[in-house]
């Protein structure tokens, strides 16, 4: 029996009175039934959504959230190995080929539009000439140095001059996105010219390298740190010395140190600047603890032994 049939069975309302008044219990069941029938699909949908959410949460939460110490270690250990090491004599050629399509970035440098804008002399840096560089280059006598965070090349050109002085054939791979950091233009306004949103940091770095007579010993990787280190890892480019001096917040320092360690030649030395920064210090010590290194200090720099 459907609703209409039932309504037809009801006695007609008495004069002057309402159905509600005379049969107060008859109307309510129909109303209730109507409401229940209408709200059921909604209830099913809600139930289905809750079930889907619970299933999704349960199936994804397990692999993403670590419950044991070994899981935590695995999630924090950048484990895929890098390629077989290239001979140091192939490092520069490999980067010229993979990054610069086998052309020299110094050919016809600087380009005409940038020429009048570059400064002849401008090598701002931070602790870029500290004794740590000489100490480590004398100790390790590196064929390949990887520097993560180069800015205007102050530390890179300094390392190049030390290596030359020691008679070493050292290739320095400078990794930087050459974007500085948000707000850096405010600090460097007096020096930098802006061309269509670009502050010419890469060109000024190259100018400084040319001026230091180090174009044969320095080659840059103008990418973000993780991408560039990933490339070196894939090509088997390892550093005897690897220096980390890019962004100094904990997460950046942590990721940079882990990626940098992967391209450290066995027996090489990993070091970096700005131990005084909280984020850097934390990342260095967690990394040292996980990998069994000791942290030594040389001026503002940390060194892992
Ligand atoms: C402190 S400066 C490097 C100074 C240099 N080592 C010296 O002593 O002259 C930091 C540099 O890291 C670069 N940098 C920061 N985060 C980066 C990232 N994720 N990838 C690539 N470069 C980055 C910035 O562009 C900046 O040039």
UniProtKB/TrEMBL annotation:
Keyword annotations from UniProtKB, A to Z: Membrane, Transmembrane, Transmembrane helix
Transmembrane segments: 43-60
Superkingdom: Eukaryota
Disordered: annotated span: 1-32
Composition bias, Basic residues: 19-30
InterPro entries reported for this sequence: SAM-dependent_MTases_sf (IPR029063)
Pfam families in the cross-refs: Methyltransf_24
Gene3D superfamilies in alphabetical order: Vaccinia Virus protein VP39 (3.40.50.150)
PANTHER family, sorted: S-ADENOSYL-L-METHIONINE-DEPENDENT METHYLTRANSFERASES SUPERFAMILY PROTEIN
Protein name: S-adenosyl-L-methionine-dependent methyltransferase
Organism of derivation: Salvia splendens
Species lineage: Eukaryota, Viridiplantae, Streptophyta, Embryophyta, Tracheophyta
């Amino acid at each position: 029996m459907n609703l209409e049939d039932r309504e037809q069975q009801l006695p007609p309302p008495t004069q002057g009175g309402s159905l509600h008044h005379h049969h107060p219990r008859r109307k309510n069941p129909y109303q209730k039934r109507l409401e229940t029938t209408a709200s059921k699909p909604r209830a099913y949908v809600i139930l289905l959504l809750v079930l889907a959410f619970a299933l999704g949460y349960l199936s994804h939460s397990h692999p993403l959230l670590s419950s044991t110490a070994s899981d935590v270690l695995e999630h924090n250990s950048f484990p895929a190995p890098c390629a077989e090491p290239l001979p140091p004599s192939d490092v520069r050629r490999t980067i010229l080929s993979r990054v610069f399509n086998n052309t020299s970035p110094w050919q016809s440098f600087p380009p005409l539009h940038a020429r009048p804008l570059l400064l002849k002399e401008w090598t701002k840096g931070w602790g870029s000439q500290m004794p740590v560089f000489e100490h480590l280059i004398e100790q390790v006598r590196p064929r390949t140095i990887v520097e993560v965070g180069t800015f205007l090349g102050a530390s890179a050109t300094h390392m190049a001059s030390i290596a030359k002085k020691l008679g070493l054939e050292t290739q320095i791979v400078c990794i930087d996105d050459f974007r500085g950091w948000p707000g850096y233009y405010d600090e460097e306004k007096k020096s930098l010219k802006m061309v269509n949103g670009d502050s010419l940091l890469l060109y000024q770095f190259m100018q400084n390298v040319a001026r230091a007579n180090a174009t044969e010993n320095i080659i840059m990787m103008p990418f973000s740190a993780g991408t560039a280190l990933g490339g070196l890892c894939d090509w088997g480019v390892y550093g005897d010395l690897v220096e980390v001096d890019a962004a100094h917040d904990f997460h950046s320092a942590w990721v940079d140190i882990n990626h940098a360690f992967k391209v450290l030649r066995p027996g090489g030395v990993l070091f970096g600047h700005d131990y005084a920064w909280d984020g850097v210090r934390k990342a260095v010590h967690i990394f040292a603890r996980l990998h069994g290194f000791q942290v030594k200090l040389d001026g503002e720099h940390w060194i892992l032994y």
